[in-house]
Amino acid sequence: MNYEKNDVDELYKSLGIKDYRYVEIQENEEIIQIINKWALVKEIINFCSESQSSQEVKTK
Amino acid sequence: MGSSTVIANLARNLHELDQDVLVIDLKSNNLLRLHFNMDWCNPNGWALNVINDQPWFNAGFKCEFGISFMPFGRITYENKQCLFNEKIENNWLSNQLSMANFSDKKWIILNVESELNNLSIQALNYADKIIRVIEPQATCLGQFYDSIQSNYLSNNPSLHDKCLYLINKMMPLSELDHEMSLVFKSLIPNQLIPVKIHFDENIKEAFAQKTTVNIYAPNSGTAKQFRTLATWLMLHFSHKGAA
Question: What is the pLDDT of residues B31-77, one digit of tens each?
Fold first, then answer.
């Protein structure tokens, strides 16, 4: 059987499973302030958020 | 990040709680054994046995406090390449552990390389639980994201499910450490072990004395934290665990 590259994403979606490549930040004001306070932390979180968003678009 | 030290201290505390523990060092730096007072010049270990076509499980030792451990052994760079490229086949670890019949051991704790190789991958797949030791630093946050977005972990949801994270070397007076631990807690609230191991000179001094902190400084804060960690793991995973 041939599998499309994004089949695993579709499988996760169909089973209602969150994609394991991503983690969600439990956002609250304190955490956001901390992330914005440290340049590297902000850069990493932003990069990963953008990566996650583009992946979500790709799998739609 | 400091997994050998964490495992040695954890093993000793589990043993003090009357748990049967076997520690197997899969890291080629071969340092775990020194926490258990093994002679520095002693080259023996399971990897050396495998290279010499001897039974690997004959490389077991027991320290003076009764903990069973299996050091990696001292091997040359060439032998290490031979070990990973020729000797360690698919399912080698699970086959060997089944053949060795360690069923009397309640806890088999594997000290696994942070880099993925065919042995560490087998260990991750074999383990009931994976404890990833992290430090509350921005570098560790980058590594954390890299690891969960790597193909191997992302393609194996079962690995993600059995991962727990332990914050190690936390400096309680450091603003950055405190804030980074909050960031990690917000990222992995259900997988972060609610015990943090603090940075402590006693840990370094205990290693320099070839022992663990609960022997060297039993009343120190970190000795108490390792006791709490062992108790927490016992309460949550009373069957078999691996790190």
Answer: 999 999 999 999 999 999 999 999 988 999 999 888 999 999 999 99
Range of the domain at A48: 7-59
The residue in chain A having the minimum alpha-carbon distance to the alpha carbon of residue B150 is A21
3-state secondary structure B130-172: EEEEECCCHHHHHHHHHHHHCHHHHCCHHHHHCEEEEECCECC
- Give pTM, 2 decimals: 0.85
Q: What is the pLDDT of residue B120?
A: 92
Let me know: does B169 contact B134? Beta carbons within 8 Å. Answer: no
Both tokens of B190, joined, read: 């259900």
Among candidates B138, B153, B160 on the partner chain, residue whose Cβ is nearest the Cβ of A41: B138
Q: How many independent structural domains does chain A possess?
A: 1
Task: Give the orientation angle of helix B175-187 with respect to helix B138-149, to 10 degrees.
Answer: 20
Q: How far is A14 from chain B (nearest CA, A)?
A: 15
Domains in chain B, CATH or no CATH each: 3-242 (3.40.50.300)
Q: What are residue B111's DSSP bridge partners?
A: B25
